[in-house]
Amino acid sequence: MILVRINKDKYKYDIHSLVKAFYSKEDVSVLTDEEIAKKEFDENDILFKIEIFLEEEKGEISMKIIRKDGSCAEAKTICATSEEGADSSTNGTSASLSTPKNALKQMMYRELSKEIGHELPWGSLTGIRPTRIPMQMLEAGKQEDDIKKYMQNTFFVSDEKTDLAYNIAIREKKILDDINYRDGYSIYLGIPFCPTTCLYCSFTSFPIVTWSKKVDDYIECLKKEIDFVAENFKGKTVNSVYIGGGTPTTLSPDQMTRLISYLREKIDLSECREFTVESGRPDSITREKLRAMKNCGVDRISVNPQTMSDETLKRIGRQHTVAQFIDAYKTAREEGFDNINMDIILGLPGETEEDVKHTMSEIEKLSPDDLTVHSLSVKRGSRLAEHIRNNGYFVAGDTGSMMKIAAESAKRMGLSPYYLYRQKNISGNLENTGYAREGKAGIYNILMMEEVQSIVALGAGTVTKRVYGDGRIERCDNVKDITLYMNNIEEMIERKRVLFSF
Ligand code: SF4
Q1: Closest C-alpha to ligand 1, atom 2
Q2: Angle, to 10 degrees, between the axis of helix 399-412 and the axis of helix 353-366?
Q3: CB 68 within 8 A of CB 47
């Protein structure tokens, strides 16, 4: 483990995230002196220690890295005396000093990259939405040069990732400028059932075999939530609908039709720009289900191979084959779907760059409209985390190189990056990127990721987000447990009523 000692109970989350970005496989503890005094540590477990001394009132922050052999590296930085930064310095330094948080992160980044011997692609940025920085600066009228310099000088973002973030922000802005999203909202419906549970899963997902008899009751609860939305959001425009999960295509054609028809009957979707259904697991897709969705006006689906290796699919518990995936994809094309996304994951257990090259060349033969490239994220509590605990880590290839292979392949297919997000504990400290053909970008993905409008989420384990005009965001969630969700459906609705102050 890496032990970070800090003299004040501040910036712990940022410190933890940054150290973790460099040392993803190590446990990291950020503790104050009092907290350390109450704990016992086995010195043998500690890889090295970091001490951070914050004196923002004096505009100073210092740090020390104490290595196992007793040697030290020390650093000191100056900063503004408050997070507001400008004009708040008491020590005669200039008003353009970094805020204490940025100065701390910059100093830590410099010292840790020296210690480990390499830089990070996203520099000191540890948040999940790095494109928000260029996006906000574009909206404030800043020019390309200023935006890129800011990302590189303040956060040490690499040239490659700076270009990626900037280009995505430009594309997102163009798409958003064409949608009246400020007066609208989007709807998310969660179907928390899957054929089996994937090794890396961190979503709300329960095996359909266990729950099949309860699915109709679950749909009835979704209908109650739809009634609430219909009644309270009357007159507001729905910009996009996304049915996710889980795997929505675990519903039968009749259940799918019943659910979507009810939604359409109760809520005016005439202005809706996109209706997506995640059809992720090929082992849940049938021609009848695809036809039912098409008849209900679904215009975008996602059929996800994750990898084109049968061996890996077995290893990660997907329980479908590559052949099944290809068959599901071709059937969807035959049924008239002209906007199909594919998800792949880089850094899967045992996979090498060669496996990714193979996956991409097989995908190129199918020519999807969208491609979402994920870097594997190991979530605490997932079966994957347990697998790693029991079997050790599985570094078979370099996720950064895999990312380049996927990006080049996307380019060959005529797909350009249009949205991006990062997760905690993501393989290679990289990102997830959505690529799309012109005119096929997933609108819901942009609206949700840029947090520019409210998303009303229905179903177990979903989170509703209210975005205010000034950018403030408030959330309320539905419980994950399906039985609790169904037994307390009125309370789930009440939470939304309170959030939106109806
Ligand atoms: S298909 Fe998705 S939601 Fe279902 S188990 Fe796999 S990762 Fe989880």
Answers
A1: 246
A2: 20
A3: yes
Same domain (yes/no): 281, 412: yes
Average pLDDT over residues 398-413: 95
> Ligand 1 center to residue 312 CA distance, Å?
15
pLDDT category at 202 given cuts 50, 70, 90 is confident
Per-residue model confidence (pLDDT) at position 41: 85
Q: Which atom of ligand 1 is nearest to the CA of 317?
A: 6
- Give the residue with greater pLDDT, 398 vs 339: 339
CATH number at residue 42: 3.40.50
280 in contact with ligand 1, CB cutoff 6 A: yes
Q: Above 80 in pLDDT, residue 429? A: no
Secondary structure (DSSP) of 391-438: H-----S-HHHHHHHHHHHHHHTT-EEEEEE--TTBGGG--EEEEE-T
Summarised one tens digit per residue, pLDDT across range 254-312 is 999 999 999 999 999 999 999 999 999 999 999 999 999 999 999 999 999 999 999 99
Same domain (yes/no): 339, 448: yes
Q: Which of 155-169, 391-405, 465-479, 486-500 has the lowest mean pLDDT?
A: 391-405
**Number of structural domains found in the chain:** 3
DSSP string for 318-365: ----HHHHHHHHHHHHHTT---EEEEEEES-TT--HHHHHHHHHHHHH
Which of 191, 194, 316 has most ligand 1 atoms within 8 Å of its beta carbon, as the pocket-test mutant? 194
Residue 138 Cβ inside 6 Å of ligand 1? The answer reads no
Q: Which residues pair with 353 in a beta bridge?
A: none
Question: Does residue 382 have its Cβ closer than 6 Å to ligand 1?
Answer: no
Rounded distance from Cα 463 to ligand 1 centre (Å)? 18
Q: Is 246 in the pocket of ligand 1 (CB under 6 A)?
A: yes
Q: Are residues 113 and 126 in the same domain?
A: no
Token couple for 67: 């290595």
Residues 305 and 258 in one domain: yes
Beta-carbon count within 10 A of 143 CB:
10
How much distance in Å is there from the Cα of 300 to the middle of ligand 1?
19
The answer on 317 and 236 residing in a single domain is yes
pLDDT in tens, 66-111: 999 999 999 999 998 877 654 433 333 444 688 899 999 999 999 9
In this structure, the residue with its CA closest to atom 7 of ligand 1 is 201
Rounded to an integer, what distance in angstroms lies between the CA atom of residue 160 and that of residue 173?
20
